[in-house]
């Protein structure tokens, strides 16, 4: 091949790559999701709308959802109970295919305006890649839940840019409301407020370990162990310029430390607008060995070089005071010496 023909062939072959390189966005962002796309807020509900209940993860009995069903109806909604409620395949609410099919039918049913996951546990990661969530782009609906449901929240945020609700699920609704603590009642009531479109505005007592400051950004996050397990996958969240919230339960302190190192080493702590630390119920070491650091030590060590606000003891997590949060919605976090406040943008 002569020189002119060689140059021509190389130019033709590399043209697509040259054009690609002009796009000012990392390759990962183009493949996984479009961070420049604004988040779609699903339509808020009104009286008479249908809320579906399904089990994408752990199993639950029909009896154990009755308190939630009664409360949803009291709020003025209709309820569609999915086929996975009452099913059990070892720890799961049915087989992978049964759980996928039930969740998919809830997504595809245009009459269902919100989907309340019955409980967490484990299992969402086993079906997330088999779900066809594309309809959520044009016809979004609220997905509600937390813990293992972090998988679905993160996938919606990263790939479809659709908001969702991180909150308690059916297994957290008390059987006897007269005996329920006020924090539990308020947490469940916050789900109703989210669904009806009330702007979230949470005021709470500051922790002396907080780093003060003011942050504005999109709210993302969830269960820390689940977020760690999605690092490098197509459901991995982007945290740049966002307010990240995390919570966990039943983990050793050294494991929590490792998970925060994962956040730091994957760059998720580098460019945050703000950081919210929810409930962390650490597991005691069976052999009585002391890790030597508290949850406050662990976090502050990882963020020492950054200047954004950090808020500890936010009422979210595996606890009775688990307030509903709109993942993907814009919020302002104010961490001050006398008060802390998380407010949804108007």
Helix-strand category: alpha/beta
Q: What is the class of the largest domain in the CATH system?
A: Alpha Beta
Q: Rough shape?
A: globular
Give the tally of β-strands. 13
Count of helical stretches: 10
As for the CATH topology of the largest domain, it is: Rossmann fold
Order of helices and strands: HHEHEHEHEHEHEEHEHEHEEEE
Radius of gyration: 22 Å
Tell me the domain tally.
2
- Mean pLDDT, nearest integer? 91
Low-confidence stretches: 1-33
CATH superfamily of the largest domain: Murein tetrapeptidase LD-carboxypeptidase, N-terminal domain
The CATH architecture category of the largest domain equals: 3-Layer(aba) Sandwich
If strands are numbered along the chain, what order do they take across the biggest sheet?
6-13-12-7-8-9-10
- Largest pleated sheet: 7 strands, mixed
What proportion of the residues form beta strands (DSSP E)? 15-25%
Label this structure with key terms:
346 residues, alpha/beta, Rossmann fold, Glucose Oxidase, domain 1, 2 domains, 7-stranded mixed beta sheet, 6-stranded mixed beta sheet
